[in-house]
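RECORD CONTENTS
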Amino acid sequence: MASIDRFDTHSVSQESTSDHHNQRLEDLTDEQIQIKLDGLLRTNQMLTIENEILEKYHKKIEPFYLATIAGTSSSSLTTTPSGSMYDLSGGQQPQQQPTGGRYRKRSKSRSIQGDFRMRLTADQKCEIASKEIEELREDSRKANEESEKNLDSYKAILEEADIRINEIKIEMHEFERNVLKAGYNPMNKKIAAEKLIKYFEDRVKERDTLVDKLKLKNESMRKRKQKLKAELKEKEEMGEVLHEVDFRQLKIENKQYMAKIDEKNTEMIKLKKMVGVATQALNFKKKQLGLCLKEYDSLVNDIKSREKLLKNIETETNTVEKEHFKEESKNKKLRGQLENYKVPEVSDYVNAEDYLYNLQKELKVWERKVEIAEMALKINKQSWQQIRSNINENSSFGRKQFNNTLSGSAY
């Protein structure tokens, strides 16, 4: 009875969920329904791919393996709607429904829906997918080997065709030179038959000699083959012949050496990339060095011009100082004369006043000149100090940058 009640509640819950799902679909908009439909189509596509892989996997399983699984783990196998037995470990077996008349029967659609909810576990999916990937890799390897063989055969055919074409071109050239040109008679405008017959006789002789050479080569190759067979037989009798295990070991060693070669190739590619980056950095540093050298040359020229200007300013300041000293001595004399001056007559006084006024004017002019010269001297001194500081900074910056570029290029 408990199982019957559980079955009834399960069916009622399914009906309620379906009604609720329909009600939710009615509440949704067209865009939301389209989004849900796209999601269901994607999931359906993924399930279709999984089913195809599962069918391929079960087709490749041997019948006795399926029989063994069916006999040993029948409790963990569940019959799907199609009738095939899938190992759904972790899933419970569906309970058998009683056949009495008082029990409710499950509908076909609900039973199918309940069966489709059973899925393979992640481990089983991973195992099937890994086996499928291995088979695909093996198929791709075989296809690659077959394609390589076909490519080699096609290359050999093309090489043979090229050789044959070259031979035909050479023969055409020789025929044209020896028969068409050499045997042409301009009198009757015909080709001499003797030339043609001689050409073909020579060609037949060349072919005969080639055949004799190939026969001798074939005979030597046959003897070499017999010798190698005798050596191989002796080695087989002495037990020195390589067996299949040795070939497998050689294949393993070959794979290991190929892996090492691939590692060395990757390392070489990385080193090439590093060399490329280093060369780019070196070129960039060389460009910077060229710019710094140009800037250094310009700074040297600027320093030379500023030094010349400074020398001119120093000479001008010296001359101004000398003139200032002379005028100062004159001013002192005039002041001494002014202090020791005795009051003259009115006319002398007027003349002296006039002369004094002129002298004062000239003195003011000279004092103004002195002030201007002092201001110019101060400005020149300031500019000279600034120039010297700039020269020192530029020289130190140029030396640092030059040293950095030299160290970077050396690195």
Notes: The radius of gyration is 56 Å.
